[in-house]
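## retry 2 of 3
previous attempt timed out at serialization; input unchanged, resubmitting
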Amino acid sequence: MEQQLEELRHLAARAENRRTDTGIPRVAMVQGEIPEHQLAAVYEPMVNLILTGSKSMTVGDRTFHYDPATYFVMSVDLPAVGSVHPDERGRPYLAISLTLDPAIVANLIADLPKPAGGTLYDSGFSVAPITPELLDAWVRMLRLMDRPDEVAALAPAYEREILFRVLRGPLGWMLRDIAMPETPLARVGDAIRWIRENFAKPLRVEELAEMTALSVSAFHRHFKAVTALSPIQYQKHVRLLHARSLLLSGEGTATSVAFGVGYESPNQFSREYARQFGLPPLKDAARLRLRAA
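## retry succeeded, writing output
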């Protein structure tokens, strides 16, 4: 597998220290010391493969660590805090990712035999060891960066193969669940999308439970299992991350931003912001701008 990893490292070496498009739909790469505010974000559903260095990802009270030759699956939008590190030789962090499209996953599953046994159910994110077959599919996918005229014809096939290899692995249930609307994971995903789109509005758990056709207690239980957060905590994380983005771009004062993301009290906003990011809003934004300069 080392030869495959080395080729992937060579192909992805053109990545920058931010999400870098590859010219291949849904495939991106990143390299180096990523700015702190980009690592604290709402992450989209994805398959993420580490090529060099390591990464830690914390969602709620759960933290996962992953190194080269491991891949990470996130099946729902999750507010997370990450940290990346170079390897023992000083080579920078390097990773590639495939954003998940539930429709593509569903079409693939429809063409496969139904798995034996019931649907497994666990959190919305986890890590597993890579396999030579999955690496091989990734190598062929990234080679398309140098063959743009072949992307339209071959990228969909390679994407299906990557998803197929993940489906056959220990985290395959995560892909199956996001493509099946009646699973608890998919129902929680509907509630998550509502919160992300309406984070500034008051959140009524009873209405979200009704939306997902679950009792309030079952909704709470499943939501916490998937996200490691309660619905209120999830909303708060999304509000604070959005507020941080607005402050970094200079769009308003701390007070106007607080009201804009749904807080009724600027003082409460400042307290929760400092608890989340370590500094009050304006000081944190100034610190991040200074680091980026």
